[in-house]
From TrEMBL:
<dbReference type="Pfam" id="PF05974">
    <property type="entry name" value="DUF892"/>
</dbReference>
<dbReference type="InterPro" id="IPR010287">
    <property type="entry name" value="DUF892_YciF-like"/>
</dbReference>
<protein>
    <submittedName>
        <fullName>DUF892 family protein</fullName>
    </submittedName>
</protein>
<dbReference type="InterPro" id="IPR009078">
    <property type="entry name" value="Ferritin-like_SF"/>
</dbReference>
<dbReference type="InterPro" id="IPR012347">
    <property type="entry name" value="Ferritin-like"/>
</dbReference>
<dbReference type="InterPro" id="IPR047114">
    <property type="entry name" value="YciF"/>
</dbReference>
Length: 174
């Protein structure tokens, strides 16, 4: 059955396990590569951060991302797959754009820190969305351990996002 545009209806679309596995690994590669880029870049900000609690949040975020990457390594092992560099132009572009915006406000410490919070919030939101979609795919792949590891990554990303939001609220409403 097709819809008015001649395309299959969503109920008819079936992803075979090989296609789904390929999709899953490809997108896991993307998020893992983006996280590696983020871990390499974030520590560069710490010396420039004005808000002390933001310094702590950045350090915590780096630690959490490293834990998330370790969990993703376990997922690769469970899938008998090897991590490969994923296409990350969009994700690294966001990180690099963030660094440009932050540098543009180098003379205004408070605005620079708010830019850091703004971009880190956006990055955490993208990570959360990615983990949610991969969790749905893990259900279809019938792997509860992978789903659990992704849930832990999602929970950490959500906690980091909440922490950044609290820091932003503290300084905006001061």
């Amino acid at each position: 059955m097709t819809n008015e545009s001649g395309k299959p209806s969503p109920k008819q679309i079936q992803l075979g396990s090989a296609k789904l596995r390929s999709f899953f690994i490809d997108h896991l590669n993307r998020i893992c590569s983006a996280k590696a880029h983020l871990v390499a870049k974030l520590p560069q900000l710490n010396d420039e951060v004005y808000f002390k609690d933001l310094q702590l949040a950045i350090r915590e975020t780096v630690e959490d991302v490293e834990k998330q990457m370790a969990r993703m390594d376990v997922i690769y092992e469970l899938l008998d797959a090897t991590r490969a560099d994923g296409s990350i132009m969009g994700l690294t572009g966001l990180v690099d754009d963030a660094f440009e915006a932050i540098a543009a406000q180098a003379d205004e410490a408070e605005l620079r820190d708010m830019s850091i919070i703004f971009y880190l919030q956006n990055i955490e939101s993208m990570e959360m969305a990615s983990f949610q979609v991969l969790q749905m795919a893990a259900v279809k792949l019938k792997n509860k351990q992978i789903k659990q590891l992704l849930q832990e990554n999602y929970d950490e990303a959500r906690a980091d996002r909440t922490l950044l939001l609290l820091i932003a609220a503290k300084y905006i409403t001061k």
